[in-house]
Amino acid sequence: MNDAVESNETPLLSVRDLKVHFPFRRGSLFNSQKGVIRAVDGISFDIGRGETLGLVGESGCGKSTTARAIINLVPPTSGDVQIDGVSIAGMSDAAMLPYRRRVQMVFQDPFASLNPRMTVGAIIGEPLVVHSLAKGRDRKLEVLRLMELVGLNPRFLNRYPHEFSGGQRQRIGIARALAVQPDIILCDEPVSALDVSIQAQIINLLMDLQQKLGLSYLFIAHDLAVVRHIATRVGVMYLGRIVELAKSEDLYAGPKHPYTEALLSAVPVPDPEVAAKRQRIVLSGEVPSPDRYYPGCAFADRCPVKIDRCTTDRPELPGKPHAAACWVREEALAETPANA
Amino acid sequence: MTQTASQTDPTESHASDDPILRVDDLHVSFKTDEGMVRAVRGVSFDVRAGETVAIVGESGSGKSVTNLAMMGLVPKPPGNVDSGRALFGGRDLLTMSDRELQDIRGRHIAMIFQDPMTALNPLMTVEQQLTEMTRLHLSVTRHEARRHAIEMLGLVGITAPEKRLRDYPHQFSGGMRQRVMIAMALSCEPELLIADEPTTALDVTIQAQIMELLADLQERKGTAIVLITHDLGVVAGVADRVLVMYAGRIVEKADVRTLFAGPQHPYTIGLLGSLPNVESNRDEPLAAIPGQPPDLSQPILGCSFRDRCDHRFDRCQNEAPLLTPRADLGGEPHLAACHADLSNTDSHTANANHSENGQ
């Protein structure tokens, strides 16, 4: 358990030992191999009210699957998801409905996540219909209010998604998520498809809305600078697991896990003077495959500081404010005796 | 080749060694349902041997179209190269026959793209694709071509290259495919490599490996690189000179240190300010550029950036600014297309967050 939220109140969202495994079969009919892709392999975290937890990691590390599993878009294989202490994992769709209202999602691709045949008004108003929150004139007024809230011109009510730019479409997606007055929004790479200048507009909007409405965010991104800006705490994922979890400023100032260190050192810095001076840790090798089972640390093959124990013995993330799942770098683990 | 004095750009005349590529007043347009889109509206630059020139801009700024036009790869119709020249080794790429261009593409100028799957043939093995290039351009024997292919794959860091030769592109991961494409592009030792967002689709740790690889190959072979990207972080790390494009034009041109230390065009200042930074403060909103780029299917009077600009004044409404020299800090002349003089104003403060983050 890693209760990094330093208070006694029940966290808004609590994820415990969440696993999402996809079984697969490959090869020919008579010579097939069965296996399992461990997309998410036992992760735990809490998100408090008004807090932003950033999840970073490279493609295939399971960060998007984590978000999808939280709201059951992908059924979790095991583990528990709690909202205000109530477990929602494995609930029926009908029983889940009131909880869906509290947890909303904003997707990466503003082109794919909006129905091209619906007007903006209908898109933003649809959740109000699904959750029977407003009808007729009230619904229209509410939609107009939401459009204003996210910085869309209310005159565009009857336009279609294709008439908007990427940034504006992302605003539509955010307005749709806000329609049901959620407590938390799961943002899956919400700005990575946008140009830099537009990206900054959307980040500012999300932070502004958080101030106004007291929202919590799970903010998933591969861009570490964006996450640094928006998140209060950050979890770094590698091959389906969180390898480091800490307050944002602690993580960026003093990364513990060698993977976090390498990741931070690889982020291009927009300053030629700094870029010329700094030392990059260039990792050798590729991200390992999630269809293989690693008894030890999945990062061991690429790790510059690994010891024998790393390939046989899996380091778990300890429950402390700045935690790393590393036998070498995490004091809490380094002292434990080696056993298989 | 005669050059009218008015079009000669001070950056170019500064070159002591002759540029290997000189692009001159290039215009490209596309016919669309919404009307004629003028994607590139008068772009001039040059590239010298062994240097890296970065072209930075957002989607729709014309950075990719500029390079596709040079390589004769703009689909016609709907596209059309309206005017301009692209001199490579004294010959104009824009007026060459397809046949002549084919001799140059791959042999003297090679391209790598963002998505390696668009450049690799999924039905051919890596060996077939790598040897096709050298057999065609260098007229070597099949055996020599194969040996060369193994050598190239090794050079780009693919382990056990002789075993991977028979593999098809889908058997490689994204980062490895990018390496295969780079191996292909470099197999004839081109003088110029055009890299269009070569690392955008890759994760940062792999991106770092690829950029390192390109820098290493450049050092060894003296290849000039035109790097097209939207990522200012990548630019800061590898470029010698930078061209900033906006709405089909170059709006600022400088060597990399000058540009990042004191950007002179409000768009460049805005771009740098809107970057979240690993050191940036959560309590301060990012300096986003309000609004959106202009619609290039409509005629643009005056400055294309004026609607999003804090420094606009009357003159910006109807007179398009030309690239003019700014405060000279030594080295390359620094050019910006802006009527306002921002040399003593907030350009440095806007950039302050970025220059303070030395470690």
Describe the fold and architecture:
The complex is a heterodimer of chains A (340) and B (359). Chain A has 340 residues and is an alpha/beta fold. Chain A has a domain of 225 residues: 3-Layer(aba) Sandwich (Rossmann fold), CATH 3.40.50. Helices cover 31% and strands 21% of the residues of chain A. Chain A has eleven helices and eleven strands. In chain A, helix 3 runs parallel beside helix 5 and helix 5 runs parallel beside helix 6. The radius of gyration of chain A is 21 Å and the shape is globular. Chain A starts with 12 loop residues before the first strand and ends in a 6-residue tail after the last helix. Chain B has 359 residues and is α/β, with parallel strands linked by helices. Chain B has three domains: 142 residues, P-loop containing nucleotide triphosphate hydrolases (Rossmann fold, 3-Layer(aba) Sandwich), CATH 3.40.50; 71 residues, no CATH class; 92 residues, no CATH class. Helix content of chain B is 33%, strand content 21%. In chain B, the strands form two sheets. An eight-stranded mixed beta sheet of chain B has the order 6-7-8-3-9-10-12-11, with helices on both faces. In chain B, strand 7, helix 9 and strand 8 form a beta-alpha-beta unit. In chain B, helix 6 packs across helix 8 and helix 8 packs parallel to helix 9. The N terminus and C terminus of chain B are likely disordered. Chains A and B meet through helix 6, helix 7, helix 9 and helix 10 of A and helix 8, helix 9, helix 10, helix 11 and helix 12 of B.
The CATH architecture classification of the largest domain in chain B is 3-Layer(aba) Sandwich
Relative helix content of chain B: 25-40%
Using only C-alpha atoms, the radius of gyration of chain A works out to 21 Å
Find the CATH topology of the domain at 13-112 and 210-334 in chain A: Rossmann fold
Structural class of chain A: alpha/beta
Judging from the principal axes of the Cα atoms, what is the shape of chain B? globular
What are the low-pLDDT stretches of chain A, counting only 5+ consecutive residues below 50?
A: 1-6
The domain count of chain B comes to: 3
Provide the β-strand percentage band of chain A: 15-25%
Radius of gyration of chain B equals 21 Å
Biggest beta sheet summary of chain B: 8 strands, mixed
Oligomer: heterodimer
GO molecular function, one term (chain B): ATP binding
Subcellular location (chain B): Cell inner membrane
Family (chain B): Belongs to the ABC transporter superfamily.
Biased composition (Polar residues) (chain B): 1-10
